[in-house]
Amino acid sequence: MEIPPTPADLLKIYTECVNFAAVKHRNQRRLDSQETPYINHPIAYILTEAGITDFEVLQTAILHDTVEDTDTSFEEIESLFGKTVRLLVQEVTDDKSLPKQERKRLQIEHASTTSHRAKLVKLADKIYNLRDLQRCKPKNWTNERCREYFCWAKQVCDNMKGTNAALESILDDIFRQENVN
Predict the structure, then answer these.
(1) Family, per the entry (predicted)?
(2) Which tens digit of pLDDT belongs to each residue from 119-145?
(3) Going by fewer Cβ within 10 Å, which terminus of the chain is more open, N or C?
(4) Which of 68, 76, 94, 158 is catalytic?
(5) The CATH number of the domain where 158 resides is what?
(6) For the chain, what is the domain count?
(7) 73-78-80 Cα angle (round to 5)
(8) Are 89 and 45 in contact (CB under 8 A)?
(9) How do residues 20-59 score in pLDDT, each as one tens digit?
(10) C-beta neighbour count of 137 within 10 angstroms
């Protein structure tokens, strides 16, 4: 029988996870006018604010873009953070070898079939991205492109209805503010 980790063990693992993501994303910036450091993409915070305390979900939230946007491999995630976290990160990672429009289509299509835990991460990620877009339009984005992003994100989120009332309420408010039906 496996001994559960102590609170000190969990804190150590969590800190290692945050540090890993910070190192991997150290040279990346958001496309906003302030060039916000990418690691300031705090979707784990959004999850904890919604009452999510599942440790592996929070780890996945921290690591969710490392494979997609850095030189990190799924094998590296598994070796450092375990198979479950690797599988969750894999569920929320787009295949960057595909064209952008195909990746967006697949996000809509796969949203309803991913695990409950992956859906939590996806919903928090959409919340952060949409709030960021409301706060500051990315460089070279037109109003039309912003609107298209909101409409696409709503399609993705609609396919995850029933996952978490608190996260969905935040998204409903955002979409209402942006007049996205």
Answers:
(1) Belongs to the MESH1 family.
(2) 999 999 999 999 989 988 888 899 999
(3) N
(4) 68
(5) 1.10.3210.10
(6) 1
(7) 100
(8) no
(9) 888 888 887 776 666 777 676 667 889 999 999 999 999 9
(10) 16
Choose, from 49, 54, 69, 158, the residue flagged as catalytic. Answer: 69
CA 34 to chain centre: 21
CA 49 – CA 123 distance, rounded (Å): 13
The mean pLDDT value for 147-174 works out to: 98
Q: What local confidence, expressed as pLDDT, does residue 41 receive?
A: 66
Q: How far apart are CA 169 and CA 124, in angstroms?
A: 12
User: Is-catalytic flag, 125?
Assistant: no
Is residue 56 among the annotated active site residues?
Answer: no
Contacts of 181 (CB under 8 A, 6+ apart): 154, 175
Which two structure tokens, joined as six digits, stand for 142?
């037109």
pLDDT, mean over the chain: 91
